[in-house]
Amino acid sequence: xxxxxxxxxxxxxxxxxxxxxxxxxxxxxxxxxxxxxxxxxxxxxxxxxxxxxxxxxxxxxxxxxxxxxxxxxxxxxxxxxxxxxxxxxxxxxxxxxxxxxxxxxxxxxxxxxxxxxxxxxxxxxxxxxxxxxxxxxxxxxxxxxxxxxxxxxxxxxxxxxxxxxxxxxxxxxxxxxxxxxxxxxxxxxxxxxxxxxxxxxxxxxxxxxxxxxxxxxxxxxxxxxxxxxxxxxxxxxxxxxxxxxxxxxxxxxxxxxxxxxxxxxxxxxxxxxxxxxxxxxxxxxxxxxxxxxxxxxxxxxxxxxxxxxxxxxxxxxxxxxxxxxxxxxxxxxx
Length: 334
Hints:
Blueprint: E1 4-5, H1 39-63, H2 70-96, H3 104-115, H4 122-134, H5 151-163, H6 180-183, H7 186-193, H8 195-214, H9 217-244, H10 264-269, H11 276-281, H12 297-307, E2 314-315, H13 319-324
Parallel strand pairs: 1-2
């Protein structure tokens, strides 16, 4: 049976609210200067960014004026949902924030699906996101849009940096200390080490399905383009928009120590991640869409897993905690 428990208070500055928290005394120091990553890393990230986009353009061009096949649409959308949930439910809400508990088989499935999204190894992804929470919209935030100067030039530089430019910067030297609990987990270590294998499988599977369903080599190619590259392209830009758009445009109903915002468009497209101010106010909550009208597919999936015994200790804030963190508090009667 699903158990609902409130998050731990944010009294120690540890917005991650981990079971094995990082020592807050070990997080001080001077802001690190951003440096370019090694050329090989920049080239690899450039390929990861541009190749899916090129695949999308090729897929559209090949299908232009050709009878559209529901097989490719199903692989594109199905792959987007599965690997997107691998990021939102798996990489983010389970591994990074421990907002619920799950059996090892579920952990493995979520980690593998998230790896197929081509957003980097699980350990690196989780540690980077924890670093983001610890220094959100300050100089050590790896992808803030608010630390790049004033005026339009600063705004534009910040937008580009927060969306994908940060992928070309040197990895922080102290990144490993943000995920010591995960680094000790053999399953997480295995999934992280075999990241490229799962990425390759995520590209090959839709190609195989396309070939089997259509019985043609063209089906193999279109399955690869739509279920592989184009799907990755969409997952990438929706995920990156949470870093960029959801720190620039939207509402801020809850108090938080940053510029995180709720954006309804990405609340839907990113399976609930777009309710970003809610998330930064209550980082350990498995539910980001905290109001009935805030659609949160990721939370619905977690609740469904709970109903069949595949998730437990699902953490959500109590009504009292929601009320206490509202940005505008009603005045008290004298």
